[in-house]
Amino acid sequence: MKYKIVVFDLDGTILNTLEDLADSTNYALSVFDMPERTIEEIRHFVGNGIRKLMERAVPQGTPESMIVKVHETFTEHYKKHCADKTRPYDGIKELIENIRNAGVYTAVVSNKADYGVQILCKDYFPGLFDYAVGEREGIRRKPYPDSVNEVLRQFDVDRTQAVYVGDSEVDVQTAANAGMDVCMVGWGFRDEEFLKENGAEFVVHSPEEAWEFINK
After folding, report:
1. Per-residue pLDDT tens for 59-70?
2. Mean pLDDT computed over every residue of the chain
3. DSSP three-state, residue 15
4. Is 30 helix (H, G, I), strand (E, B) or coil?
5. Cis peptide before 88 (omega within 30 of 0)
6. pTM for the whole thing?
7. N or C: which end of the chain has fewer CB within 10 A?
8. pLDDT tens sequence across 141-187
9. How far apart are CA 126 and CA 114, in angstroms?
């Protein structure tokens, strides 16, 4: 195979986490008597980490001190409820198993808080990822390539032998900044038209199509 490692985004790529993110966001907003957000609003707010999700969800002009409180409340709730409604997309486990059976490393790099990444990967994909990392203090979030570069160093893989699989404009930018190939999926939180407007050359629509791309 051309690739020695496949690096996946998490939210919207391998797991449909939208409902749990929306539930915890609206719980945190309701605690502080702020108006709740729709699923579609949350869909467009995610991608740049939980802190940015909170900034986008609260009413415009909300003081910084209040955003911090909403963020803390979200975190407390989401730690307990991050897997209530979350489910893997159909065919994703089989895709990851095919990749591993071909002798290729698998990893997750996400802007989701690291505690959430570790919990969800353990719960839904036990033993299927060689490395998983989320947002941590001191490490710049995607689209900066810091975490992706760390993964490549961990496995001593050249970026020309790596591909990033994601579902958002942030993932397009991350792959470009890391100097690696990208496989964009159309089943996640952004539609194909939006992805192409933001730099995606093409979009796959099933895990089977993703396997064909990776296995080319």
Report:
1. 999 999 999 999
2. 96
3. strand
4. helix
5. no
6. 0.92
7. C
8. 999 999 999 999 999 999 999 999 999 999 999 999 999 999 999 99
9. 16
Six-digit token pair at 165?
């699989």
Q: Which two tokens stand for residue 101?
A: 């059976």
CATH number, domain 5-16+87-214: 3.40.50.1000
Interacting residues of 70 by C-beta distance below 8 A, sequence separation 6+: 28, 29, 31, 32, 34, 54, 57, 58, 62
Q: What's residue 63's pLDDT?
A: 97
Tokens for 195? 């992805």
Give CATH 3.40.50.1000 domain extents, the chain.
5-16+87-214
Taking only the tens place, the pLDDT of each residue in 109-122 is: 999 989 999 999 99
Q: Helix axis angle, 64-81 relative to 50-57, nearest 10°? A: 120
Question: 50 by DSSP, 3-state: which?
Answer: helix
CA 160 to chain centroid:
22
Beta strands in 117-207 (DSSP E): 131-135, 162-166, 181-185, 203-204
Q: What span, in angstroms and rounded, lies between the C-alpha atoms of 124 and 40?
A: 25
Compute the distance between CA of residue 8 and CA of residue 12 in angstroms, rounded to an integer. Answer: 10
**Residue 150 CB neighbours (<10 A):** 14
Average pLDDT over residues 62-84: 96
Residue 179: name the closest of 200, 160, 203 by CA.
160
Domain with CATH 1.10.150.240 in the chain: 18-81
Q: Which CATH class is domain 18-81?
A: mainly alpha
CA 72/CA 171 separation, integer angstroms: 26
